[in-house]
């Protein structure tokens, strides 16, 4: 990016400026979206006039005076040359007292890999160099690695909580990734020019952002001298206020929807309120007898030959035509993502629960005894409640298989940039180690097919977005299959041979029966028995 250095004393004056050779620009399309275009010789011209740079400096000083501190300011200039301030927030101020220059007191003997660039965030960090070039690299970025990238893409920001340091070939120190690096206290060295060429991925390096250097191996003297990372928020009035408020928002006390205490008067947090409202709303929504007039038009039971009941709520254009009565057949479903999910659910018949050893059986008994609401045989509105909420391009599936609860939400259409899939899987009748092992098995399978997966406790959360329609539908078929065929596997998850067997079987099923697009609409084969 272009750089202007402007004095802070009145009258303001330009001390220095550096104009870069800009090769690309992003242009707004007439209707919506943006596109990237190559820049001709105009790329060598300044992005601003000197007068515009000085005007920006005047506004920045006024904002600093008003907020009594350095500010991170986002701005734009329209085609008529009018300046607009878009956002203003506190900027972390870099330490003015730099530590002694590298080599002044304790010479560094490690080989020097590169020198130069700009300090985007101070400090020293060491770790294995990991080159990030695409979203797929986010899945395998190791804890404590050095993030090495050509361009500081905003999408890499989630990695900074795990990164020891950040090094880029290009990019401005006022950009989004640089700001996040400062907020997280991650040492960052930008504009090195050729770091991705000089640094070999997989090697251990030390990044000295203050000294604008990168060394081979760990330089313990630099690491010891570097200040510990500190949180910007801890101890501030804002942090303490948010901590107090969080206690009234996050905790969940209403965990059993069949308990007599599951009622509005028992709500003590915002999480309780939203959980109670959701559960009661779903119960009311799918009570066909109590809502005959509403259900006659919108809610139908899916006509399939299985003991389980599958309900379908038409949000808009989810049915091909208005259907009288309580049931709807698959051939009248117009929802593209729902049909893909159903194809996955019915692709391979479920063989039933795996054989359980004595320890696995006792684990289930222990869970059922300690959590009576999990008892599958107990009468419960939720025991077999499985419902779709659909439109032509949208689907939300909420499914309960015994002890296991899963949700899938998807928007799939011709516009790739709007497409997304989200998946959540939780619950189980076994003890925590077995449930966690089952979650990791699901994670391994989904990551194999390019989902971004996160495990919290024994729950699995996965997402996929910005992919073509056919690709998204194939992944929805995988989620339909996973939702059915991973239930009750937690009972055998401490048996390595069983884990390996079921993992290989599921991958084989997915490759041979789930991923290939069906020749005819799904639904002819009955879904798995419970």
From TrEMBL:
Cofactor dependence: Mg(2+)
Stretch forming the signal peptide: none
Ranges where the PEP-utilising enzyme mobile domain occurs: 141-210
Residues of the Pyruvate phosphate dikinase AMP/ATP-binding domain: 5-96
Family, similarity comment: Belongs to the PEP-utilizing enzyme family.
PANTHER family (UniProt xref): PHOSPHOENOLPYRUVATE SYNTHASE
Protein name: Phosphoenolpyruvate synthase
């Amino acid at each position: 990016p272009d750089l202007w250095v402007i004095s802070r004393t009145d009258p303001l004056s330009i001390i220095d400026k550096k104009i870069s050779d800009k090769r690309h620009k992003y242009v707004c399309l007439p209707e919506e979206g943006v596109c990237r275009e190559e820049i001709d010789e105009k790329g060598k011209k300044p992005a601003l006039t000197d007068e515009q740079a000085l005007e920006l400096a005047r506004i920045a000083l006024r904002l600093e005076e008003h907020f009594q501190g350095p500010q991170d300011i986002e701005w734009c200039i329209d085609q008529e040359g009018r300046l607009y301030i878009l956002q203003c927030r506190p900027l972390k101020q870099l330490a003015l007292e730099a530590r002694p220059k590298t080599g002044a007191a304790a010479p560094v003997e490690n080989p020097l890999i590169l020198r130069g660039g700009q300090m985007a965030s101070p400090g020293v960090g060491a770790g294995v160099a990991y080159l990030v070039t695409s979203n797929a690299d986010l899945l395998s970025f190791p804890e404590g690695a050095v993030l090495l990238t050509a361009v500081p893409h905003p999408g890499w920001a989630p990695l900074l909580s795990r990164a020891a340091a950040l090094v880029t070939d290009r990019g401005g120190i006022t950009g989004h990734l640089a700001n996040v690096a400062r907020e997280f206290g991650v040492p960052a060295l930008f504009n090195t020019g050729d770091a991705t060429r000089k640094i070999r991925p997989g090697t251990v390096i030390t990044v000295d952002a203050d000294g604008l250097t990168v060394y081979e191996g760990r330089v313990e003297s630099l690491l010891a001298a570097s200040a510990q990372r500190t949180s910007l928020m801890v101890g501030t009035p804002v942090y303490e206020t948010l901590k107090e408020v969080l206690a009234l928002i996050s905790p969940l006390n209403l965990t059993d929807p069949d308990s007599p205490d599951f009622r509005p008067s028992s709500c003590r947090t915002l999480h309780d309120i939203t959980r109670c409202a959701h559960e009661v709303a779903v119960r009311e929504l799918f009570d066909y007898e109590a809502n005959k007039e509403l259900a006659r038009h919108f809610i139908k039971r899916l006509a399939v030959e299985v003991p389980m009941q599958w309900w379908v709520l038409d949000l808009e254009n989810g049915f091909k035509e208005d259907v009288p009565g309580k049931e709807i057949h698959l051939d009248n479903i117009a929802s593209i993502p729902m049909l893909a999910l159903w194809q996955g659910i019915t692709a391979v018949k479920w063989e039933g629960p795996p054989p359980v050893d004595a320890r696995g059986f006792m684990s289930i008994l222990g869970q059922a005894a300690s959590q009576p609401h999990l008892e599958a045989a107990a009468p419960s509105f939720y025991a077999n409640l499985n419902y779709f909420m659909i439109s032509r391009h949208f689907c939300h599936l909420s499914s309960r298989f015994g002890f296991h609860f899963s949700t899938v939400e998807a928007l799939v259409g011709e516009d790739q940039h709007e497409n997304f899939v989200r998946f959540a899987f939780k619950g189980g009748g076994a003890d925590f180690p077995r449930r966690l092992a089952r979650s990791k098995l699901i994670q391994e399978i989904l990551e194999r097919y390019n989902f971004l997966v996160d495990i919290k406790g024994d729950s699995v959360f996965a997402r996929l977005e910005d992919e073509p329609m056919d690709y998204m539908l194939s992944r929805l078929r995988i989620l339909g299959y996973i939702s059915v065929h991973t239930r009750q596997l937690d009972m055998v998850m401490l048996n390595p041979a069983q884990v390996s067997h079921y993992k290989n079987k599921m991958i084989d099923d997915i490759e041979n029966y789930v991923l290939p697009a069906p020749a005819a609409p799904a639904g002819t084969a009955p879904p798995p028995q419970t």
